[in-house]
Amino acid sequence: IQDEDPVAVSRSGDTDQGEALPRQVVQVGAFPNPFSTQLTVKVQTTLDALADVRLTDVSGRTVRAILSAAPITGRTIHYQEVDVTGLLPGQYFVVVKTADQQHAYPVIKIK
């Protein structure tokens, strides 16, 4: 099974004193894509973070809660397998939310 190219989202900024904040990069991937009965979600951050990860349908409704306030250690790749049997074929999104970011990674369910 080959990983899909992850999507990177970054955030950086300045404090009131003009000092640069550490740069947080979140990488999200899911494979196989398209998927049928099992989906593996990959999340990596450059800094330690708490992450909520869920699978949503196109209307934004959560169809599978994957991780809830899970600690993701910086520079460590976290893999989570998700049983998706029972979901109808179609477009879904792996949504990753940290304290300062949210990202949706599109995936497709086939028969």
Overview of the structural elements:
The protein is mainly beta and 111 residues long. It has strands spanning 7-11, 24-31, 38-45, 49-57, 62-72, 77-83, 90-97, 102-109.
Mean pLDDT: 84
Secondary structure tally, helices: 0
Topology, number of strands? 8
- Most strands sheet: 4 strands, antiparallel
Strand content: over 45%
Q: What structural category do the secondary elements indicate?
A: mainly beta
Helix content, binned percent? under 10%
Q: Which helices and strands appear, and what pairs or packs with what?
A:
Elements: E1 7-11, E2 24-31, E3 38-45, E4 49-57, E5 62-72, E6 77-83, E7 90-97, E8 102-109
Give me some keywords for this one:
111 residues; mainly beta; 4-stranded antiparallel sheet
Summarize the structure.
By secondary structure, the protein is an all-beta fold.
